[in-house]
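tokens incoming
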């Protein structure tokens, strides 16, 4: 029996090993917490390329993207994290008031939380794929999420499946440490690639002729 080092089995094993290594690097670069933003952007830079089968050197691509997008990604994550804490405080506070005003404010805060979740889903993939200002990226993340439910709902479903798995199945936490975050980003990238490609095609079609 001959072994083909370029066969599908070895290709799968190489990809698996690379994704495990990438997951470890991602977790390490997330350790200061405020670097979670750049780490997510770098991770999506790699997984979006992989979903488009562009190949390349995974680890060098990761570190280049981490360095390139560092300031903007840090700012994006800290803003979203701060908003998350503010919204959480308001949900707890107004939820205890049990008044008409409190319920009305709670409804508004809940809607803002949904928009924040939408923004978080798209912000770092957008930074990985497109060059925009931070303000424009935030605007795009919310607008795209709302106007493309066929993409947003599967993304929400992917996150929900893994969150529920981590709650219900203790072994899922081991999976997350080994390869989970990279695998989630890759699954998200498979969903996002077609949408992002349509944006690029539209941009090319609308470009002025020289």
């Amino acid at each position: 029996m001959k072994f083909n080092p370029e066969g599908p089995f070895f290709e799968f094993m190489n990809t698996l090993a690379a994704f495990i290594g990438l997951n470890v690097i991602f977790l390490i670069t997330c350790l200061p917490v405020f670097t979670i933003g750049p780490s997510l952007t770098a991770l999506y830079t790699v997984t979006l390329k992989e979903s488009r089968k562009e190949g390349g050197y995974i680890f060098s691509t990761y570190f280049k993207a981490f360095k390139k997008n560092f300031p903007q990604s840090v700012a994006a994550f800290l803003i979203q994290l701060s908003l998350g804490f503010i919204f959480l405080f308001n949900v707890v506070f107004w939820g205890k008031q049990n008044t008409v005003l409190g319920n009305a404010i709670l409804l508004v805060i809940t809607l803002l939380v949904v928009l924040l979740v939408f923004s978080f889903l798209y912000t770092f993939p957008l930074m990985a794929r497109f060059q925009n200002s931070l303000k424009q990226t935030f605007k795009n993340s919310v607008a795209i999420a709302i106007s493309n439910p066929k993409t947003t709902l599967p993304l929400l479903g992917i996150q929900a499946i893994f969150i529920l798995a981590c709650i219900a199945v203790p072994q899922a936490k081991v999976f997350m440490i080994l390869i989970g975050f990279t695998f989630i980003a890759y699954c998200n990238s498979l969903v996002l690639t077609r949408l992002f490609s349509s944006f690029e095609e539209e941009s090319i079609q609308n470009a002025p002729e020289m």
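note: The mean pLDDT is 89.
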